Each structure stands twice: as C-alpha cells, then as structure tokens.
Amino acid sequence: MNLIFGDNLYYNLLAFIIISIIFTWLVTQTFKVILKCWIGKKFSIKMFFHDGDFPSTHTALVTCAVILVLFLNAYTLGLTDPATISSYNSAKDFLIILTLASIVIRDAMGQRHRQDNTNKNLKNLKDYIQELGVERNVIEHIDATFESIDNEAIKRVGHLKHEVYGGMILGAICSLYLIIFFFNRYDWLLFNIIITILYILAILIFLKIKPVVAKKITYKKSKNKK
Known about the structure:
Layout: H1 9-40, H2 57-76, H3 82-131, H4 135-154, H5 161-182, H6 189-209
Helix pairs in contact: 1-2, 1-3, 1-5, 2-3, 2-5, 3-4, 5-6
C-alpha cells in the first residue's frame, strides 16, 4: 500500500477509508450537478447537497464500501504479520461503520428538513383558506401549494431503478480508482477507464432515448362550478 501519510500503516488505512467516502460522495454529487445543469440549464451550489436524482449517492457509497471490504479481505490473505492484519481488519470495521453512519445521519437530517418544509406549506395553505373566500383563488393556491409540497417532500425522496443502478456502477468505478491509486494496481487502470467511458456514453444515450423525468405526483385542477 502507498504510505502517503507517514510510516504508520493504521493511520494510512484510516486516511484511505475517509478519502474513499469523500471521493465517492464528491464524484456522485458532481455527476448529479452536471446532469442537472445540462438538463435544467441552471446551476446552484445547493445541488451538491440534494437527495434523489441520478445517480444514487447512497447506493454508490454502499457499493464502494462493499468492493473495498472484499478487496481488503483478499489483500490480507497474502499477509502474515499479525499486527498488519489487525490494522487491515480495524480499517475494514471503520469503513463499514463510517459508511453506515454517513448514510443514516444524512437521511435523518434530510428527512427532518423535508418534513419541516411540508409542515410549513400545509400551514400556509390552512391560513390562506381561512383568509380567502373566493373559490377560484383558493383552488389556485391549493394547486400551487401542492406543487411546492411535491417538490420538497416527494420528488427528492427515493430513487428510480436507473438511478440506483447508475449509483451502483459509479460506486464500483470509484472503488477501483481508489484501489488503483492506493494499492498500485495500475494493471486495472485501462479496464477502469474503458468502463468509465462506457458509463458516460450510456448516460448520454439514455438521455437521448428517454429524457430524465422527475418523479412527480400530478394534481388535477378542480373546475369551478357555476
């Protein structure tokens, strides 16, 4: 293994795990931002912290962790020094715990934020209905509020199948690049570059054939009765 943080193997392994999580998250979120900017023609720094959409960051993180654990298991089979093996085992435990913790914490924070926005929109709707007596205005406001609730509480929750598969493949690609760099497996580099190019081409083809459509609940507008 490349010892880029001094001679202490354990600290190098911890650095490797932390960098792996951050690297996979950054790559996946960057993909999301690029696709959103391409499709929506607009950019916001908040896009880096949005849930949902393609590819699934949660899936990418878990997939990356699984492959890294499998690789570290195979790598330690060729080791004989008990102290070295112990360092690798501790690093694997830390990788699993850190991955699960990052996902749970992010979900907890995101879910609370979405729920607060939903409650706020529902309160605004209730207040508006109490203030207005004109049926048409009330209906228009209800439609607008439902759309706002949909954007905040529904569209960003969960993933479509292609978003999960996309995250899975991207997580595997990220894990291979990490292994190549940290463990000098440059014999895998060409293979991973080819997979990366095919992945990007598949995304471009998919967007041409089937434009990305956000998951959305459509509310039928009510008609005023005369």
